[in-house]
Amino acid sequence: MGEEFAEEMEMKVKTTLKKPHFVMIHGISGGGWCWYKIRCLMENSGYKVSCIDLKGSGIDQIDPNTVLSFKEYNNPLLQFLSSLNDNEKVILVGHSAGGLSLTDAIHKFAKKISLAVYVAATMLKTGYVTKEDIKDGVPDLSNFGEIGDVYDIGFGMGLDHPPTSMLIKEELQRKIIYQLSPQEDSTLAAMLLRPGPIQALKSAYFEEGEDADGVPRIYIKTTHDHVIKPQQQHAMIKKWPPTDVYVLESDHSPFFSAPFTLFGLLVKAAISAGCI
Questions:
Q1: Is the pTM of this model over 0.70?
Q2: What DSSP element (H or E) covers 119?
Q3: Region of residue 56 (phi > 0: left; psi between -120 and 50: alpha; otherwise: beta)
Q4: In 3D, which of 25, 53, 65 has the Cα closest to residue 164?
Q5: Is pLDDT of 15 > 50?
Q6: Taking Cα atoms as reference points, which of 52, 64, 48 lies closest to residue 105?
Q7: 121-171, pLDDT tens digit by residue?
Q8: Max alpha carbon distance in the chain (Å)?
Q9: Measured on CA atoms in the order 248, 251, 254, 257, is the torsion positive or negative?
């Protein structure tokens, strides 16, 4: 079903020369490697794709325990956008906490973004400002145990200071993040996931940019998500309504569990926004 949908979407753009540039942003603990299936599908169909490693993530060599501000964490994306030609626009795609990176970019580089797509992502207009924002946008994994039983926690500034990094324990990763994904993908992820700079994410709050509301946004809901639960996704969509909402039968990681359908939805979103 997913392959047929992807093929249908691609057939609609076979005759056009206008192929947008997709920029993919991973969630906490991930990296550009998360998108390898989507990148292959897109590049094989003629699209340009860039997969960003945020600070302390992916192959970036910085110790995530030393990344203490969201400004530093998201700097690789902002540097990438600032390097684009004045007349060049991209489609930003953010997964999970990568949604915070998208929102930051929307406020700072609205004129360089033709579309923002939030995939099972935190979508808060000004970031973590209120208790309600935290309730809606921060994963609650208490169903899987106490915080120390669920996460490996780093204290880069010492045990008498707040945690600086967190990573879901390897034995729980498949159960929580990849329960519908192929075994080989969850095995790959277990080898590549890194502690995420939680102290940096806690400081994610943004001043509204004057052109931010002019950037079209699409939200892709994941119906079997244990991380950003469907009710949290619904609350964020209601609070800051996007241009459109798509629904995907997937776990928290549709780039593994439903890559063909996700690819088709990304192309559909680009068509709807007039990017293709």
A1: yes
A2: strand 113-119
A3: left
A4: 65
A5: no
A6: 52
A7: 999 999 999 999 999 999 999 999 999 999 999 999 999 999 999 999 999
A8: 61
A9: negative
End-to-end CA distance of the chain: 23
Q: Are 31 and 167 in contact (CB under 8 A)?
A: no
Residue partners of 261: CB distance under 8 A and separation at least 6: 1, 2, 5, 6, 248, 249, 250, 254
| Radius of gyration in angstroms for the set of CA atoms belonging to the chain, rounded to a whole number | 18
Q: Could you identify the residue written with the tokens 């095995």? A: 187
Give the CA angle between residues 216, 105, 167 to the nearest 5°.
Answer: 110
Hey, is 113 helix, strand or coil? strand
Tokens, residue 92 = 């930003």
Are the CB atoms for 112 and 90 separated by under 8 Å? yes
> What is the spatial distance between Cα 238 and Cα 240, in angstroms, rounded to a whole number?
6
Query: 12 vs 45, 248, 267, CA distance in Å?
Result: 12, 21, 9
Sign of the torsion angle spanned by Cα atoms 4, 264, 196, 202? negative
Nearest to 180 by CA among 251, 274, 254: 251
Residue 89 CA to its chain's centroid (Å): 19
Which residues are part of the catalytic machinery? 96, 225, 252
225/7 Cα distance (integer angstroms): 26
- Least confident piece of the model among 2-6, 29-33, 101-105, 228-232: 2-6
Q: Which residues pair with 217 in a beta bridge?
A: 116
